[in-house]
Target: Transcriptional regulator, HxlR family
Amino acid sequence: MIINEALPDKDECTGSLRNVLDALSVLNGKWKIALILSLVQSSKRFNEIQHELKGISPKVLAKELKDLELNDFVKRCVYPTTPVSIIYEATDYSRTLKSLIGELSAWGEQHREKVKQSMRKQS
Model:
Protein backbone atom coordinates (compact mmCIF):
# COMPACT_ATOMS: atom_id res chain seq x y z
CA MET A 1 0.00 0.00 0.00
CA ILE A 2 1.30 3.43 -0.91
CA ILE A 3 0.78 5.99 1.84
CA ASN A 4 -0.02 9.64 1.01
CA GLU A 5 -1.05 8.82 -2.55
CA ALA A 6 -4.14 10.78 -3.51
CA LEU A 7 -7.20 8.71 -4.34
CA PRO A 8 -8.56 9.17 -7.87
CA ASP A 9 -11.58 11.43 -8.17
CA LYS A 10 -14.96 10.21 -9.38
CA ASP A 11 -14.37 11.20 -13.03
CA GLU A 12 -11.01 9.38 -13.11
CA CYS A 13 -12.60 6.26 -11.62
CA THR A 14 -15.48 6.39 -14.09
CA GLY A 15 -13.07 6.80 -17.01
CA SER A 16 -10.84 3.99 -15.79
CA LEU A 17 -13.81 1.70 -15.27
CA ARG A 18 -15.09 2.42 -18.77
CA ASN A 19 -11.64 1.74 -20.25
CA VAL A 20 -11.28 -1.55 -18.36
CA LEU A 21 -14.75 -2.69 -19.39
CA ASP A 22 -13.98 -1.86 -23.04
CA ALA A 23 -10.78 -3.91 -22.88
CA LEU A 24 -12.48 -6.83 -21.14
CA SER A 25 -15.30 -6.85 -23.69
CA VAL A 26 -12.83 -7.92 -26.42
CA LEU A 27 -10.35 -9.89 -24.27
CA ASN A 28 -12.71 -11.71 -21.91
CA GLY A 29 -12.57 -15.44 -21.43
CA LYS A 30 -10.04 -17.97 -20.30
CA TRP A 31 -8.28 -18.42 -23.64
CA LYS A 32 -8.07 -15.16 -25.60
CA ILE A 33 -4.89 -13.73 -24.12
CA ALA A 34 -3.23 -17.16 -24.17
CA LEU A 35 -4.18 -17.51 -27.85
CA ILE A 36 -2.73 -14.11 -28.67
CA LEU A 37 0.48 -14.94 -26.80
CA SER A 38 0.77 -18.25 -28.65
CA LEU A 39 0.33 -16.59 -32.04
CA VAL A 40 2.67 -13.69 -31.26
CA GLN A 41 5.39 -16.31 -30.78
CA SER A 42 4.68 -17.81 -34.22
CA SER A 43 1.91 -18.39 -36.75
CA LYS A 44 0.18 -21.74 -36.32
CA ARG A 45 -2.39 -24.12 -37.70
CA PHE A 46 -5.53 -24.91 -35.73
CA ASN A 47 -4.21 -28.28 -34.49
CA GLU A 48 -0.89 -26.75 -33.45
CA ILE A 49 -2.73 -24.17 -31.33
CA GLN A 50 -4.93 -26.83 -29.77
CA HIS A 51 -1.88 -28.95 -28.95
CA GLU A 52 -0.11 -25.99 -27.35
CA LEU A 53 -3.12 -24.88 -25.27
CA LYS A 54 -3.88 -28.03 -23.33
CA GLY A 55 -7.52 -28.30 -22.30
CA ILE A 56 -9.16 -26.16 -24.98
CA SER A 57 -11.84 -27.96 -26.98
CA PRO A 58 -12.02 -27.60 -30.77
CA LYS A 59 -15.41 -25.85 -30.47
CA VAL A 60 -14.11 -23.28 -27.97
CA LEU A 61 -10.90 -22.75 -29.95
CA ALA A 62 -12.86 -22.09 -33.15
CA LYS A 63 -15.12 -19.58 -31.35
CA GLU A 64 -12.22 -17.78 -29.66
CA LEU A 65 -10.25 -17.54 -32.92
CA LYS A 66 -13.32 -16.15 -34.69
CA ASP A 67 -13.85 -13.56 -31.93
CA LEU A 68 -10.19 -12.53 -32.06
CA GLU A 69 -10.34 -12.29 -35.85
CA LEU A 70 -13.46 -10.09 -35.67
CA ASN A 71 -11.61 -7.76 -33.28
CA ASP A 72 -8.47 -7.64 -35.48
CA PHE A 73 -6.19 -9.46 -33.04
CA VAL A 74 -5.76 -12.51 -35.29
CA LYS A 75 -5.52 -12.93 -39.05
CA ARG A 76 -6.75 -16.12 -40.72
CA CYS A 77 -4.74 -16.92 -43.85
CA VAL A 78 -6.16 -19.48 -46.28
CA TYR A 79 -3.73 -21.09 -48.72
CA PRO A 80 -5.14 -22.84 -51.82
CA THR A 81 -3.28 -26.10 -51.39
CA THR A 82 -4.70 -29.62 -51.45
CA PRO A 83 -5.99 -29.94 -48.83
CA VAL A 84 -6.54 -26.25 -48.02
CA SER A 85 -4.08 -24.88 -45.43
CA ILE A 86 -5.28 -22.38 -42.86
CA ILE A 87 -2.72 -20.53 -40.78
CA TYR A 88 -3.54 -18.16 -37.92
CA GLU A 89 -1.20 -15.30 -37.14
CA ALA A 90 -1.07 -12.41 -34.72
CA THR A 91 -1.68 -8.93 -36.11
CA ASP A 92 0.25 -5.78 -35.29
CA TYR A 93 -2.81 -4.75 -33.24
CA SER A 94 -2.39 -7.82 -31.02
CA ARG A 95 1.21 -6.83 -30.41
CA THR A 96 -0.06 -3.66 -28.68
CA LEU A 97 -0.93 -6.00 -25.79
CA LYS A 98 2.75 -6.81 -25.13
CA SER A 99 3.05 -4.76 -21.94
CA LEU A 100 -0.34 -5.96 -20.65
CA ILE A 101 0.63 -9.60 -21.19
CA GLY A 102 3.99 -8.93 -19.53
CA GLU A 103 2.28 -7.43 -16.49
CA LEU A 104 -0.19 -10.34 -16.28
CA SER A 105 2.69 -12.80 -16.51
CA ALA A 106 4.62 -11.02 -13.76
CA TRP A 107 1.52 -10.87 -11.55
CA GLY A 108 0.81 -14.56 -12.17
CA GLU A 109 4.36 -15.51 -11.25
CA GLN A 110 4.31 -13.36 -8.11
CA HIS A 111 0.94 -14.76 -6.93
CA ARG A 112 1.16 -18.34 -8.26
CA GLU A 113 0.85 -20.04 -4.86
CA LYS A 114 -2.14 -17.98 -3.77
CA VAL A 115 -3.87 -18.63 -7.11
CA LYS A 116 -3.22 -22.39 -6.80
CA GLN A 117 -4.70 -22.39 -3.29
CA SER A 118 -7.77 -20.54 -4.51
CA MET A 119 -8.22 -22.99 -7.39
CA ARG A 120 -8.00 -25.94 -4.98
CA LYS A 121 -10.75 -24.44 -2.84
CA GLN A 122 -13.02 -24.15 -5.89
CA SER A 123 -12.53 -27.82 -6.84
About this structure: The first helix runs from residue 10 to 27. The mean pLDDT is 91. The CA atoms of residues 106 and 112 lie 10 Å apart. DSSP finds seven helices and two strands in the chain.
